[in-house]
Amino acid sequence: MIRRMRRGLTLSGLVALCMFTALALALGYANKARCTGPDFDEWGRSEPAYQERAYGDVCYSDIQNLWIGRDIDRHVFPYVHGGITADGSLYGGVVEYPVLTGVLMWLGALFARTDAGFLAASALLMAPFGLAVAWWLGRLSGWRALVWALGPPLVLYAFHNWDLPVVACAVAAVYVVHRWTSVSLPRRATVASVLLGLGFALKLYPAIFVLPLALYVLTGGAEGTRRLDVRGALQVVGAAVGTAVLVNLPFAVAGFGGWLASFEFQARRQVDVSTNSVWYWGFRHWTGDEGFQAAMGVVSPLLVLLSFAVACAVGWLRYERSGTYPWIQVSAAMLCGFLLLHKVHSPQYTLWLLPFFVLLAVRWGWIVAYLVADAAMGISIFRWFYLYMTGAPSGVHDGFTAQALMIGVWGRAALLVGLFVAFLAAPSTVDDVGSGARGTGRRSVTPAPQPLG
């Protein structure tokens, strides 16, 4: 059964997988669209009681919300004419995301006149990326890709923010490395690195996968070698950096202040209720202290970098035992470290993690537990916002909403710690075309280590 789930799908199976994904995307859009209309004010904002409905009915999306406040409704091309004020407010079309996401937002708003139109157009722009992810995961890992197609996160978060394109970049990079095997490893890894560079220009996080990919090339990839390919590894890093620079350069030249403002906004972002990270929920009574906020600006990134170093080092130890550097496993563990320790942990970040549940053979208990904890957090956080906004009792002793939120937040945090270890030990569900071994990424018959937990 497990072997059948890992095999790449036939054309009919891939079509069926994409149909399941399309259904999930349609349900995801229908859920978010409940917040739109039926009336609109002079700015195109849904009425009546938009904010109360968004939180109370759990249909909030950043897409609809950001229709107002970033000049999106005025169809201003992003970054070129704007900047950031002393109090951290963005103006002149600047958005708090990297440049390609800003362009997607502008395109989605181009013909829209209301937040409902903006949501619909944005969903149409992003849905093909969700379908592409399903197709590539099906080709890579067979029916296990149903975790993507039928997972609750796709319904909850597909159109919560602009994350489907960046997930597509990350998955496409894996696909290129492990399916374009008629091309030499350094060349296909370079193409994958370009995709990761494009991902950086969408939401930053794929850039962290460049290091394990470079180490994979350095050590010879699936063939495994003790002769290090330094040139190939540097080529991978250079391609990612070059792509990021080339994409960002026109915006930096056209409006340096506006381009820089998007990065400055994130650097200056404080730990507060909107960040939804363990730093807020664990230290929320300290968040009003400037010293705490300054410390978080140092402690959080240092711990994230430490988790990256640990993941890469463990991956190297596994390479020394097996002969293949586990770049997918290390990438997954690095993402766990980022999600757990970064100042911001938005609900839709689960979409970033979801493909690794497909690509790596972690035990199903891990997957089910994480999806349950995530759903508890993703639903209850907005109900909690609603209670807080309306002045209703919202403490952990006042009802199930706050209790479910704490279960979700801390359950998810604990699972990320466990998944950090489980991912590093897990075999891959991806087998290189032409490889003699399944799930190991090698041509030898050395058995892959079994998953922990």
Kindly describe this structure.
A hairpin with a 5-residue loop joins β3 and β4 (90-91). The protein is globular and about 65 Å long. It is built from 19 helices and four strands. α10 runs parallel beside α12 (230-254), α11 (210-218) packs antiparallel against α12 and α15 runs antiparallel to α16 (327-341). 63% of the residues lie in helices and 2% in strands. The model is unreliable at 1-5 and 434-453 (pLDDT under 50). With 453 residues, it is mainly alpha-helical. The strands form two sheets. Strands 1-2 form a two-stranded antiparallel sheet. Strands 3-4 form a two-stranded antiparallel sheet. It has helices spanning 2-6, 11-33, 50-56, 62-65, 99-109, 115-141, 146-150, 152-157, 164-179, 185-203, 210-218, 230-254, 256-268, 278-283, 290-322, 327-341, 350-359, 364-390, 400-425, and strands at 39-40, 46-47, 83-84, 90-91.
